[in-house]
Design a protein that fits this description.
The chain is α+β, with helices and mostly antiparallel strands. The protein is about 40% helix and about 15% strand.
């Protein structure tokens, strides 16, 4: 379906070629601390989707804006090119992952260029090339030398569909599904390579508070994932099994422990399952850690409380998790909701030992016990019925009980686990290790890197296990026969440092130029999906901290500011192929143009919010761009006579010209601040309103050429970051030199506060006129008089806003020029006193008068009547008495 309007295909192709020929977006290596703007690089799946387009339009618009502000801008692009989907696609098509991946990259690169994204393509990185993954292997060696790599037998998450291990972060939801294919994840015991991220757990957690440019939601997700808890470890003697350590954050409640519980995969549970059918049946058939209510089975064993010597029953319970704490816990149903639910179900005693602290508590008499029959009391409070610890506050009791109890000690536990990076797949970075019968696992020396992948073998399981010739090698230490490691690295290793490679992508003797990285990093503005909060973003922070410690990076955080963009939806649902509700970006580009797609996305909602794709919204955006094009072309064709200078300061301007000039300044004052904050929708609203004002100006008045031209000039520049192709075309049509992409950002002679006060004044005045006309039933006003308040009222308002005195009227009457107004001053002072909380600053009297005169034409056009704006000194006193700052008096003559 063809669209009326400008020839977007020709315009976009022309300027894409011109930008490329002029190397507009290249940042030289000797640039001094460029502004680094980065979108999370994509997996080359074959085609861009709308989420890509939104992400990369955000970064492109911001990069273009910073460039117009005079910054050198580093805005690169690359490809997260390893991964299982390419391997599966190659198997299905009987090809190899490399060819499939590079075909996808070629397609997506072409689509990105057609969208007009201004990347420095000289810095492109592709993680599946040996030139890149050599440095993954080099970094693995550095981590190994730093004691941050470990190989051990481990219980791991296994996806039977993908036939590979998953990190904890890649197991999603309560149902524990694979992040790629939604297959239920199993548990296996395998030899695995781990990066010891837990060594940095405390710093990763504590530094979150310093990430002020990150969304609070992402910071909280990382805090929760790291999951640091302070508590105590305490040993309970379990009948026939010796001491078993439990971790608790509430040892102050230990006198209320009425049962002991171990996880279904705890060694005691597994031993019991071999001899007890009830325990075996529960573990194999009934245990459901993700169920709505806790469940368990009694073992017949007893555990001895080390503080009270009381014996309590031992259960195997599915709400106890082996990877949280120690896999064993003392259960206090009176003070833990989960324990309470279990005890209620199993008929175990529920005993209160903590009471809320009464407001009038004397610190000596124990407060009354809370009723915990229906629900647990989970807050700190005062210890009761706990022997010598009765009467202590919870915190003191925790310290004392831990100190007094033999075998107990303070402990810190984390939810975070070391990062298992071993993957049993072909299309990833080979782990640079050889296995020697004599020397063990030996790292491949730097001089032998990269360990390149062999030719792809289309087989089930891990293709590298079938690459016999590739596996056979010699030991770097003893020279004897050895076998290569066949696991490849988790692809999140690739993305944990790729932002550093952009700094020096062609460097052959190091992963990045250290001096340049220290100058150019960290990334100033990073944009991507919130789904990466506890994988990519956490791993990148970990890598950056290690590189700061081991390689001399000056910074310890990779991203100063982070924006997590919202989804593009269709009728309230996320777009997906499986739902059949995908909108093709290429169709939109072909039909309406890239600028239309970009502008609609950026104007539809703030970047961090989800929004619904709307075909009518796209068409409306296309119509707007067409009207702007027509407006500029009409001006260039001489429909508005050309005036010299283009500065809008010619002597023959009238009030309407002043209004348009003021609105041009206003758009600049607001749009720049909104671009700074990445609230593009607000900035674009200013640009679009300015274009509408210019259209009305042209249609309803005789535009002053210099004012009109500057308005067009400013509108084009304000739109240039988001609609760059048409902006270039119109910039040239206006006769400007060079690229608008390299033009200076416009400046304004007014600040935002003044703009907002002026607009509020005009809007309130127009609304007041409408109300009077409506209430009085005036059908055909002869004249509308707008009267500005007297100067003393502005002074009184300023005093009221600044004052913190209890008696405002006395303070006002201390001013001679206000006091001499007599009853008028007293009455106005009472109004100010009554509304002190709602008072806000206005323009001064002269500025209000000028603003209203400039805007009078809007009222005249709306009501088809002449408007007279008067100062207080020139108006009837009866009308003047009704005028207030920010709210002029209105007198309508019928």
């Amino acid at each position: 379906m063809s669209q009326e309007g400008y020839d977007h295909a020709t315009v976009e192709e022309r300027w894409q070629e011109a930008w490329e020929d002029a190397d507009v977006y290249h940042v030289p290596d000797d640039a001094d601390d460029p502004t680094y703007v980065l979108g999370m690089y994509p997996y080359p799946s074959g085609k861009l989707h709308m989420g890509h387009v939104r992400n990369y339009t955000i970064t492109d618009a911001y990069a273009r804006y910073r460039r117009m502000r005079g910054d050198d801008v580093l805005h690169p692009m690359g490809w997260d090119a390893f991964g299982l989907p390419a391997e599966n696609a190659a198997k299905e098509r009987d090809t190899n992952p490399r060819d499939w991946t590079f075909d996808c990259i070629d397609t997506m690169r072409g689509q990105m260029k057609s969208m007009g994204f201004g990347y420095d393509w000289d810095r492109e990185v592709t993680t599946c090339t040996p030139e890149y993954y050599r440095w993954n292997q080099w970094l693995f060696r550095r981590f190994h030398e730093a004691g941050l790599v470990e190989r051990r037998d481990a219980e791991v998450n296994w996806c039977p569909s993908c036939e590979t291990v998953l990190a904890d972060e890649q197991v999603e939801g309560d149902a524990e599904l694979c992040w790629r294919c939604d297959t239920p994840v199993e548990t296996r015991e395998l030899d695995q390579w781990f990066l010891k991220i837990t060594e940095y757990a405390d710093e990763l957690l504590e530094a979150i508070d310093e990430l002020e440019g990150w969304p609070d939601s992402v910071r909280q997700m990382q805090r929760n994932w790291i999951g640091r808890q302070y508590g105590s470890e305490v040993d309970f003697e379990v009948e026939g099994h010796g001491p078993v350590t439990a971790f608790t954050t509430r040892i102050d409640t230990i006198h209320g422990a009425t049962f002991f519980a171990v996880a279904p995969d705890h060694p005691i549970a597994e031993e019991l399952a071999a001899e007890d059918d009830d325990v075996r049946r529960f573990i194999e058939e009934e245990a459901d850690p993700d169920g709505d209510e806790p469940n368990g089975v009694e073992t017949g064993l007893m555990a001895t409380n080390p503080v009270t010597a009381e014996e309590i029953p031992v259960f195997v319970a599915d709400f106890v998790l082996s990877d949280v704490g120690t896999g064993a816990l003392m259960a206090v149903p009176g003070h833990d909701e989960r324990d309470h639910a279990f005890a209620t179900k199993k008929g175990v005693e529920i005993r209160p030992v903590i009471a809320p602290e009464p407001d009038d508590w004397d610190g000596e008499t124990a407060p009354d016990a809370p009723d915990v029959t229906e629900e647990a009391f989970t807050e700190d409070g005062v210890v009761i019925d706990s022997g010598e610890y009765t009467g202590l506050d919870s915190e003191t009791a925790r310290e004392r009980i831990t100190e007094d109890t033999e075998g107990a000690s303070e402990a810190t536990q984390y939810r975070l686990r070391d990062w298992g990076i071993s993957r049993q797949r072909y299309w990833g970075t080979p782990i640079p290790i050889v296995h020697c019968d004599d020397c063990g696992a030996v790292p491949v020396p730097d001089e032998d890197l990269p360990v390149e992948l062999p030719e792809f073998i289309n087989t089930t399981g891990n293709p590298l296990d079938a690459a016999d010739e590739w596996q056979a090698t010699t030991c770097p230490e003893c020279g004897g026969p050895a076998t290569r490691e066949t696991d490849t690295m988790d692809t999140f290793v690739d993305s944990s440092w790729y932002f550093l490679r952009y700094v020096s992508p062609d460097l052959t003797d190091a992963p990045f130029d250290l001096d340049r990285a220290n100058d150019w990093m960290p990334v100033d503005q990073y944009v991507g999906g919130i789904e990466h909060a506890v994988m990519h973003l956490l791993y990148s922070r970990f890598f950056t901290k290690v590189l700061a410690d081991e390689e001399g990076l000056d910074h310890r955080e990779p991203f100063t500011n982070l924006l997590a963009q919202g989804m593009v939806q269709l009728e309230g649902e996320k777009m997906s192929k499986s739902k059949g509700n995908v909108v093709s970006p290429q169709r939109i580009v072909d039909e309406y143009g890239a600028d239309t797609a970009r502008l609609f996305m950026m104007e539809a909602a703030q970047p961090e919010r989800d929004f619904d794709w709307s075909e009518e919204g796209v068409r409306s955006t296309h119509r707007f761009l067409t009207r702007l094009s027509d407006l500029v072309e009409a001006y260039a064709a001489g429909e508005v006579a050309t005036a010299g200078g283009g500065d809008g300061e010619a002597a023959d301007r009238d009030e309407i010209d002043d209004y348009v000039a003021d609105e041009t300044d206003a758009a600049v004052a607001i749009a720049g601040a909104e671009y700074d904050d990445l609230t593009f929708n607000v900035a674009l609203r200013e640009a679009q309103e300015l274009v509408r004002t210019l259209r009305s100006y042209r249609e309803g008045a005789e535009p002053h050429p210099a004012v009109f031209e500057r308005g067009l000039d400013v509108a084009v520049r304000l739109l240039a970051p988001v609609a760059p192709h048409l902006a270039e075309e119109l910039w040239e049509t206006l006769g400007r030199d060079g690229f608008v992409a390299e033009a200076e950002w416009p400046t304004a002679s007014v600040d935002r506060d003044t703009v907002e006060r002026r607009r509020r004044l005009v809007a309130n005045t127009r609304e007041d006129v409408r109300d009077i006309v409506d209430v009085a039933g005036i059908e055909d006003p002869e004249r509308i008089d707008v009267v500005v308040a007297p100067d003393w009222k502005y002074d009184a308002l300023e005093i009221a806003i600044d004052s913190d005195a209890d008696n405002l009227i006395s303070e006002l009457m201390a001013e001679d020029h206000i006091r001499e107004r007599g009853d008028d001053a007293a009455s106005y002072g009472q109004d100010l006193q009554a509304n002190r909380e709602a008072l806000r600053e206005t323009l001064d009297g002269d500025a209000e008068y000028d603003a209203l005169r400039a805007a009078a034409w809007l009222i005249e056009r709306e009501f088809d009547a002449p408007v007279r704006v008067e100062r207080a000194a020139d108006a009837d006193e009866g009308v003047v008495s009704k005028a207030e700052p920010g709210r002029p008096a209105i007198d309508i003559v019928e």
